[in-house]
Design a protein that fits this description.
Elements lengths: L1 H20 L8 H16 L1 E6 L7 E6 L6 H6 L5 E5 L8 H7 L3 E3 L6 H13 L4 E3 L25 H4 L2 E13 L21 H9 L4 E7 L3 E2 L6 H23 L25
Parallel strand pairs: 1-7, 2-5, 2-6, 3-4, 3-5
Antiparallel strand pairs: 6-7, 6-8
Length: 278
């Protein structure tokens, strides 16, 4: 574990200054640095990422994913050219907040007051052509199911100048098996899931001391935002796609306690419908 921590510190000392200095013509190197750092993080934590489907290659994309752990960040950032949408509190976290600001994270306060301002900030970034990654649950869970999604953050479909080219792509993240093939279920979920009142540093130190695990990322069919007018309906459709992907990953891994009653949602209506209004 100590050796892995030393490698992580060395990577930060080298790559963060290089990222800061990548301006002007050198700015195109930033994505390569991001991917490399995330690969280092995955190697240090022993996470093996298996991907189903592919990221949307058309228009500007708002990726919507379930949220299990801070480890979701290097997992997804190793696959996507996109910035994260995060709760405002993270901005003040040591190192993590600094890296978030450096990489263009959108920090928002997730409550009703100021919802329009937050929506406009997200819409502005999308209008500039920035792909974004959203965790609509608003918090991390133990990964056994998918908590309710907050529909307010899908309000960007109301912005005509954004929705014309916007795609909303659901994706599912599942921590399925330990390195020895043992399903991650029951109390074992807390080995990689970070939720509730768990402290970050002790959890991360424990992760560095383990052999690793498999993470399954499934990209679902993207939705054309312009075809929808009801953000609550879009929220439901996206959530149900995420649930289906999580269930498939759990079934494949032999996880027996997944999608607990009360967290999963009813069957989705057809994706083709977009005529509903609030």
């Amino acid at each position: 574990m100590v050796g892995r921590l030393i490698v992580l510190i060395a990577a930060l000392l080298v790559l963060v200054p290089l990222y800061v200095l990548s301006v002007g013509p050198a700015r195109r190197l930033r994505l390569a640095q991001q991917f490399f750092f995330c690969k280092v993080m995955l190697w240090l934590t022993g996470l093996s990422v298996r991907v189903h489907g592919r990221p949307c290659a058309e228009g500007t994309v708002l990726y919507a994913s379930n949220h299990v752990s801070y480890l979701d960040i290097p997992v997804l950032a190793s696959l996507l050219d996109a910035s994260f949408i995060s709760k405002a509190e993270v901005k003040a976290w040591p190192l993590i907040g600094f890296i978030g600001r450096l990489t263009g994270t959108v920090f928002i306060r997730r409550h009703a007051v100021g919802a329009k301002r937050q929506r406009d900030e997200i819409a502005d970034r999308l209008a500039r052509g920035d792909n974004l990654i959203l965790f609509p649950e608003g918090t991390s869970t133990d990964g056994a199911g998918v908590a309710p999604f907050r529909s307010s953050l899908f309000g960007v479909i109301d912005q005509a100048e954004v929705s014309a080219t916007l795609r909303i792509q659901p994706l599912s993240v599942a921590y399925t098996r330990c390195a020895d093939g043992t399903p991650l279920e029951g109390t074992a979920r807390s080995l990689y899931a970070w939720f509730g009142d768990a402290s970050l540093l002790p959890h991360f130190k424990r992760v560095l001391g383990m052999r690793g695990a498999e993470v399954v990322v499934r990209f679902h069919e993207p939705l054309q935002a312009a075809a929808y007018t009801d953000r609550k309906y879009v929220t439901r459709v996206v959530r149900e796609a995420v649930i289906a992907g999580l269930a498939a990953a759990q079934a494949e891994a032999g996880v027996s306690d997944g999608l607990r009653s009360g967290i999963e949602f009813s069957a989705a209506r057809p994706l083709a419908s977009g005529a509903e209004r609030r």
